[in-house]
Structure formats: C-alpha cells, structure tokens
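Reviewer 2 asked us to include a model.

Predict the structure of this chain.
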Amino acid sequence: MTPPIEVLIVEDDPRIAEINRRFTEKVEGFVVVGMAKTGEEAEDWLEVMEPHLLLLDIYLPDMRGTELVRRIRGEGRDTDIIMITAAGETEIVQEAIRGGVIDFIVKPIQMERFLQTLESYRQRRERLKTSGTMTQQEIDRLWSRGTAEFPAGTVEARFTVGHSGIFLAPGPSGSTLYVLKGRGATRNVAV
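Predicted model (structure tokens):
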C-alpha cells in the first residue's frame, strides 16, 4: 500500500482551515498532518516535518503566502504547494507560478474543483515515482495534469508555454487545432 500524502494547511481563518481539512480527508490517500495560522507557524511545522503538500493562503497575519513560498524554495525544500486564496490579482498569480506553485484555487472553494486538484496531484506524484525516462507525450500529460483528452492521431509537434499549448490533430476534412489552457482542451479552429 502506498503511504499517505501528508498535507500541511496554512490558513488564518479557522472555518476555512476546517473546510480545507475536511475536503482533503475526503480524498483517499491524503492525511492532514498539521494546520498553521501564520507563516511563522508554518515554518515551525516545516522544520519538524516534511509534508508532501502545502495548502497555502496568500493573506496571512504576518506575511504573504508568496513570501512563504520564496522562503520554502530558498531553503531547498521539495514540498509541493497549492495556493487556496481569495487573491486573483495577476501579479500574485505570476509570483506564485514563478515560485513553483503547482495549482491555484480561488475562494470561495468549490468542492469539485478542490477534489479534482488533489486527485490530479496524486496522479502526478505517482507518475513521477517511476524510474527511467519519459516520452514527450508523458511529460505533456504531466504538465497538463492529465486532464486534456486529444483525438487519436494528434501530431506530436506542439508549442507550449507554461500550462498552455497548441496541438494539431489531422482529420478526414483537414486538421483541427486544439488549444490547451491550463486544465483542458478546447477545439479552436479547423485548418
């Protein structure tokens, strides 16, 4: 049996922290090992244990969550981070991405989106546990969190930026261009 994914929740609102805990524990294979109300408390937890995943708010009483991300990365910790916050400002999202945050959920939290995120995270961890090498297609699926479905015959030539990309699939009446934006593909144009 696979050991559980250990999660630390960093959230100053006790009601939201409890919701996050309950949602997290609904997903098989996850266990909440701690809850912190401040960045300093989170740092104390991180010194004692090495959780696999941090669920992190932006607005903490003593620092912004993005500051905590920088500190964690500066210490060389390999804890993965998902931001869960009311902040949706572009500069905050950019800062989170630059810090290696793997997902960003905007409050109010929708349970389906939350559960999807954790499930995708677990699948991604499982894929990365395998040794050896990965094909370009496997890497592309990893970056898209495995949620994009493309028709058979999708051309391997692709252009990607972050979690977005363009994929060309040949078809009987020409080719169809698909645009991947974060979590899924949308048919864009027939070419």
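The chain has a mean pLDDT of 80. The helical segments are 14-25, 39-48, 65-74, 90-98, 111-129, 136-143. We have added this to the supplementary material.
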